[in-house]
Specification:
single chain; mainly alpha; two-stranded antiparallel ribbon; about 5% strand; isomerase activity; isomerase; Maleyloyr_isom; MDMPI_metal-binding; Maleylpyruvate isomerase family mycothiol-dependent enzyme
Length: about 180
């Protein structure tokens, strides 16, 4: 399996571990994404991933329904199955930032999304998720490539100033419009 696909699937597995144990009440809590509950964040992750697969002719079947964890697990299984189609995932196309592949898009953008939105969901549940150093390295590496596109509607809120003594995680989250202090 191509390493980019494997890394994306690894991010999806970590997202599963971090998010699927929430209670029904926690899924209804407000998230760090203005106007969205934890459930809304999960729906966004599922729907945007389904959209990118569909744009490349990959049908993931009917949109999963049910309890949040059930919907996510069904979606993740469909995405994992689709990821076996390396021919489609490695085909070059012209994206908004130039020539790319679906494997690159899944890793760079949707991998970022899985990390950030796991933090959003855990924060909504009242917990402060500590991202790993590897995840912080990843976020730090991908953000600069997007420039102002990062702040388009439905991507990230405007950057906020982190305190001078903020942790690396807090500074990186602040770049995405999230306040963790």
């Amino acid at each position: 399996m191509d390493s980019r696909i494997a890394q994306f699937l690894g991010h999806a597995d970590t997202f599963t571990q971090r998010t699927t144990s929430l209670s029904a009440a926690q899924w209804a809590c407000p998230s760090a994404c203005e106007g969205w509950t934890a459930q809304d964040v999960l729906d966004h992750v599922i729907d945007t991933q389904r959209e990118v697969f569909a744009r490349h002719g990959m049908d993931l079947g009917a949109r999963p329904s049910g309890a949040p964890a059930e919907a996510w697990n069904a979606h993740a299984a469909a995405a994992r199955s689709a990821a076996a189609d390396e021919k489609t995932l490695l085909a070059r196309f012209d994206g908004p930032f130039g020539p790319t592949t679906l494997a690159d898009v899944l890793l760079d953008f949707y991998g970022f999304d899985l990390i950030i939105h796991a933090w959003d969901i855990r924060r909504a549940s009242g917990e402060d998720l500590k991202l790993t150093e590897a995840e912080l390295d990843f976020i730090e590496a991908v953000i600069p490539a997007w420039g102002d596109a990062l702040y388009q509607d439905q991507i990230c809120g405007r950057l906020i100033e982190a305190p001078v003594d903020a942790s690396r995680q807090a500074r990186l989250l602040a770049l995405t419009g999230r306040r963790s202090w």
